[in-house]
Amino acid sequence: MIALAALAVAACGAQPKQPTEVTQPGRATVQRGMATFYGDEQQGGPTASGERFDKRQMTAAHRTLPLGTRVRVTNTRNGRSVIVRINDRGPYGNRGRIIDLSEAAARRLDMIDAGVVPVTVEVLR
Question: How many Cα neighbours within 13 Å face the side chain of 122?
Fold first, then answer.
């Protein structure tokens, strides 16, 4: 019996947390999940918007939001927020990640050392 309980707990912890989306009538869409940031190897490469990626700009990649959308990203560990413009697609894979940020945005959120942090993403109108 104890072994079964331990197995059930271990199985629950092994699953990546899925991103969630909260919408309310007349209010902005808010998503909760994990954020990562682009590495140096993407610097100067093309983005889905056609511009070159610049890690010093306040930009981000999102799977579904329209290119050009501005969003407020808040690091839920420390409360720091930034406003970024969506100019690329990603992150890819299914690990609960909902947004990839430029290095400039990641620095303002104080997430460089962590690499991945829980965030809320609020679409701004």
Answer: 13
Range of the domain at 25: 19-123
Structural domain contains residue 3: no
Query: Which residue, chain included where needed, has tokens 């993407």?
Result: 42
Alpha carbon 111 to its chain centroid, in Å, reads 11
Domain membership of residue 5 (yes or no) is no
pTM of the entire predicted model: 0.78
Q: Which letter, b or e, does each residue of 69-82 get, where b requires 16 or more Cβ atoms within 10 Å of its Cβ?
A: bebbbbbeeeeeeb
> Residue 92: its pLDDT value, please?
87
Expressed in angstroms, the distance from the first to the final Cα of the chain is 53
